[in-house]
Amino acid sequence: MRPEDLPEDVRPLILPRPRPGLIYHCLGCGARPDIDRLTYTCPRCGAVLLIEDQGLDELKKIPGKTWRRIFDLRRTLNLPALKGVFLFHELVAPLIPLEDVVYLGEGQTPLVAANKALEAKVGRPFWFKNDGQNPSASFKDRGMASAVSFLNHLLNSGRMDKILALCASTGDTSAAAALYGSYLKGSLSTAVLLPQGKVTPQQLSQPLGAGATVLEIPGVFDDCMKVVERLADTYPVALLNSKNAWRVLGQQTYSYEIAQAFDWDVSGLAVFVPIGNAGNVTAVMSGFLKLLEVGLIRTLPRIFGVQSEHADPVFRYYLEPEAAKRRFAPVVVRDSVAQAAMIGNPVSMPRVISLSERLREASGHELTVIRVSEQEIIDSMLTANRHGHVVCTQGGESLAGLETAVEEGLVGPDMGAVLDSTAHMLKFIDFQNMYYENSFPARFEIEPKPELINAPILIKPPNTPCPAPGNPLSGADLEAFVAAAAKLAAEKLGLE
Ligand SMILES: *Cc1c(COP(=O)(O)O)cnc(C)c1O
Ligand SMILES: [Zn+2]
After folding, report:
1. How many angstroms from the chain centroid is the CA of residue 141?
2. Is the CB of 423 under 6 A from ligand 1?
3. Angle, vertex CA 50, rays to CA 48 and CA 53, nearest 5
4. 369: β partners
5. Were 45 and a residue from 29, 67, 231, 451 both cysteine, which residue would form a disulfide, CB within 3.0 to 4.6 Å?
6. pLDDT in tens, 47-69
7. Phi, psi of 470 (to 5 degrees)
């Protein structure tokens, strides 16, 4: 539809207009550095920043009901800039004009109801929200769209020319950064730092295919992050990790889309998010808090973070029930099938602490962090995919988290859950192969369950001519082969 085809009362607001109001907010000392330049940490105290919107009071003058209509009706417009995360322009990055928005198909990912048998097994209604169906096949595209649109805005407004963008990655941030960077080729080039051997071959192929410079660093993600931070502090580069608060803005749309999919009533809902560097859970919490503040929703959902036993610093922090006694300590990570979340010293930890406290003030419930085993993660992934889902290992972690939370009585019988499947299953398919081939090194602590293993069955009839590539059969040989192969296949399939 065209804007002029929409009801008259919403027309003045249906196309967002850029406005100022965004400002960095330091979670360490409370400073509010100006938004106009690229800053990742507080110039005064070095702590991480969040971006605050001082224009929210203006938005609040318009009733929540009107905003709900605007966002619902806006979905019918055929404007690419409003098709992805900038559908929620007012709640994402309102200072970016629509012509500077970079849209590559991110956001608006499907919410798929759990298969009935799986729902019965878990004992609660639940949905997977498949963020693997983003352009580079993970949720990282949401934040990359907002961060790169801001860079594009700086370029187009002449405040910067030629940007080198950098990120450290467990695989998916680099895939997203390289994709968006290659789209803006010429003005934006991308270099990514990866822990050598700690990203999957599929993930490594993505930045290579997009033409980014790929630097491999020995160690784990946390080591890459330190090197990238040193580079960002020393040289004129744009950092594209979630330490960059512009990433958080786009990732908030995961919450906005959930609220919209439930017709803006998320009471009785629990949202499960795997935690690695903690940028995503930061964005999910701050997204729902923003919706509440503007009056788009009336009640917050419960928010659950999930971590593996092999990378559990956030879980350990919240083990101490008394907030005043909590102390954060990084952990040494061990190999994990939830490799994209294999992080021992999450950069966004101060944001998590601050937002979880705001959740508690607003709803009485802080963030709940659940810990699951490697075995539970991969068994849950395989089980979900056996029931018609497309869940990555981190999505398996979300499901394992829900099952544990139900067992522990943390998700009531009248509640439903949305599980973040953060990437596409194919990115992590080598872990499925290791399971099927029983080839996990002992340090993963995974024992394949026979009922979850699958393998191809070769149908090659004995004592019969068989075709081979470049050597087709014909005539009686072909006839004999087809008859024998069909007979053998029918036996294997139990056909009578
Ligand atoms: C990055 C990533 C995570 C972890 O998200 P954080 O924001 O680092 O906590 C989980 N799953 C996938 C697939 C990811 O790419
Ligand atoms: Zn500060």
Report:
1. 8
2. yes
3. 160
4. 305
5. 29
6. 999 999 999 999 999 999 999 99
7. 85, -5
Burial category of 18 from C-beta neighbours within 10 Å (exposed 0-12, middle 13-18, buried 19 and up)? middle
Q: Residue 344 phi/psi, 5° resolution?
A: -95, -15
DSSP letter at 411 equals S
The β-bridge partners of 273 are 305
pLDDT in tens, 335-373: 999 999 999 999 999 999 999 999 999 999 999 999 999
Distance 329 CA to ligand 1 centre (A): 20
Whole-model pTM over 0.85:
yes
Which residue CA neighbors atom 15 of ligand 1 most closely? 172
201 C-beta neighbours (distance < 10 Å), count: 10
Coil/strand/helix, residue 360? helix
Question: Nearest C-alpha to atom 1 of ligand 1 is from which residue?
Answer: 340
Cα 98 to Cα 88: distance, rounded to the nearest angstrom = 12
Asked if 52 and 22 touch (Cβ cutoff 8 Å), the reply is yes
Element (H, E) at 376: helix 374-385
342 CA distance to ligand 1 middle (Å): 9
Strand residue runs (E) in 82-224: 111-113, 126-130, 163-168, 188-195, 213-217
Structure tokens at 222: 């946390």
